[in-house]
Every structure is written in structure tokens, then in C-alpha cells.
Amino acid sequence: MQTLYTTSFWLLIETVSPAGRKAIQEKMTGKNNPMFGKKVSAETRLKQSQTHTGKIRSSASCKKQSETMKGHLVSQETRDKIRVAKMGHKFHGNQYTQKENSH
């Protein structure tokens, strides 16, 4: 049922004027947001993960996300963390794999 609500909510938002969107955004920001200060349980996170696992995004969705992220700057600290996390892994095609131990 929550999916229906979420979907219909976003369909409603798309029909609202920019000024109306701004008002809704301000109403749902910070302490006014129903989820403000709440933690999502491990069980809920697992359900969300299972729901999204294997989901194939449309090319329009990929393009939209790409446009959104253009110009997004990542700090040197974050880049270093990513580099360290990927150390010892080899890039094959479109994913990293664990390097084989040659000892």
C-alpha cells in the first residue's frame, strides 16, 4: 500500500506549480518531516534492499540521474576513502573483483 501512496504522491507533485512545490518542500523539511529523528530498523532496511535488488532502471532514469550528478564535487577525503576501499580489487568490465592471491 505504501508504494501506491508514494507513487500517487509524486504524480500529484508533478501537477503542482513551482511555487506550490516550494511550499510542500518547506512543509516536509526538517522537524516537519514525519520521519525526522526516527531510525529505520534493520528489518526495514533489509526489505528495502530486497525490493531494489535486481531492479533495472530505464535509460531515461539513468540519464536523469547522470544530469543531476553533473558538477557534483567529491572531496579529496572521500576520494581517498573510495580509493582505499577498492585497493586489492581488480576492475573487470563494469565491476571490481577481488584480486587473486599470487602467494
Question: Can you characterise this structure?
Answer:
- Helix content is 54%, strand content 8%.
- The mean pLDDT is 82.
- A hairpin with a 2-residue loop joins strand 1 and strand 2.
- The termini are far apart.
- It has a two-stranded antiparallel ribbon.
- The longest helix is centred in the first third of the chain and has 13 residues, at 2-14.
- It is extended and about 55 Å long.
- The protein is mainly α.
Features:
5 helices; mainly alpha; extended; 103 residues
The SS-based structural class is mainly alpha
What's the alpha carbon Rg, rounded to whole Å? 20 Å
The share of residues in extended strands comes to 5-15%
> Distance between termini?
54 Å
The number of helical segments is 5
What is the H/E string? HHHHHEE
Largest sheet: 2 strands, antiparallel
Residue runs with pLDDT of under 50 for 5 or more positions: none
Number of strands: 2
- Helix share bin: 40-55%
Write a compact overview of the structure shown.
This protein is mainly alpha-helical and 103 residues long.
Describe the secondary-structure layout.
Layout: H1 2-14, H2 18-27, H3 42-52, H4 59-69, H5 76-86, E1 89-92, E2 95-98
Antiparallel strand pairs: 1-2
